[in-house]
UniProtKB/TrEMBL annotation:
<feature type="region of interest" description="Disordered">
    <location>
        <begin position="1"/>
        <end position="24"/>
    </location>
</feature>
<feature type="compositionally biased region" description="Polar residues">
    <location>
        <begin position="1"/>
        <end position="17"/>
    </location>
</feature>
<comment type="similarity">
    <text>Belongs to the asaB hydroxylase/desaturase family.</text>
</comment>
<protein>
    <submittedName>
        <fullName>Methyltransferase</fullName>
    </submittedName>
</protein>
<dbReference type="GO" id="GO:0016491">
    <property type="term" value="F:oxidoreductase activity"/>
</dbReference>
<dbReference type="GO" id="GO:0032259">
    <property type="term" value="P:methylation"/>
</dbReference>
<keyword id="KW-0489">Methyltransferase</keyword>
<keyword id="KW-0808">Transferase</keyword>
<dbReference type="InterPro" id="IPR044053">
    <property type="entry name" value="AsaB-like"/>
</dbReference>
<dbReference type="GO" id="GO:0008168">
    <property type="term" value="F:methyltransferase activity"/>
</dbReference>
Amino acid sequence: MSSTVTAIKTTPQATLNTTPSPVPSGPVTASINFFVPPADGSPAQHIVDGAAGGKTVENYRSEAVTVALRDIRGAEDEFSVDQNAFAPLQNVQSDPSIDWDDDESIKTKYYPEVEKVLRAAVSMDGEIRKVVIFDHTIRVADPNAHREPVMAAHVDQTAISTARRVRRHTSEEEAEKLLQGRYRLINVWRPLTRGPVTSYPLGFASADSASSSDIEPIQHIYPNGYAGEHAGVKYNQDQMWHYWSRMTPDERLLLQCFDSNLGEKGGRTPHTAFVHPRTPSDAEPRKSIEVRALVFG
């Protein structure tokens, strides 16, 4: 049974030429996989062989739908987390000494950069009181990679799982205080490719174009008994999909998963990787990192 939030098995990329092909850009029509709920109405995904990224078993499926995606390149100033639940950021520099193959290097050198970006780019009805970065994932468009791009429309967290995250990553006493104020869960996405992203770009929909009925919670159950929750996204012709062509390592995409000020709707951004039909055969395999953070006002 196919999964809404499992990665596609990508095909090996050709050896890079010394003169790379043009990077695909502009509006595009492409196939996106959307969530189809199970007959019993209780979607669940079980991790059966270890931590996230391991083998999964699901009781739901996905269906491919051809949709139009707007390229936001050149229109970056039109979007913000508050209005669209996503925001493109440019000219963000990283420490060149970060070892992207070493988790500790990422945590000690990149996490502080992510916090700085969030404090500068996110409004919280006043001063940001606290930022808690709780995990990161590196994805590579390679069938031998530990984590490949996710090829189905989804939202990383729900209202329920965000509250669980607050309680899991702060003390019991502090969590109850933080949950009384405004809190957001935001995914900070950036490419790790040597040049502009040319394969498996990220597609994302404006939050206000996806109705509550389009978003369905899915239980995410780990072998140790911990139960998280993400959401599948059902197709709706009113959804407005976008992507950001030619993303480079000095660019960041903020994807909001939840905002407590918006209740169950949560100001969440449906997103997915997709196959760009104009990706050249010699494209550099997409490599990216996403860092998830709780932001408290």
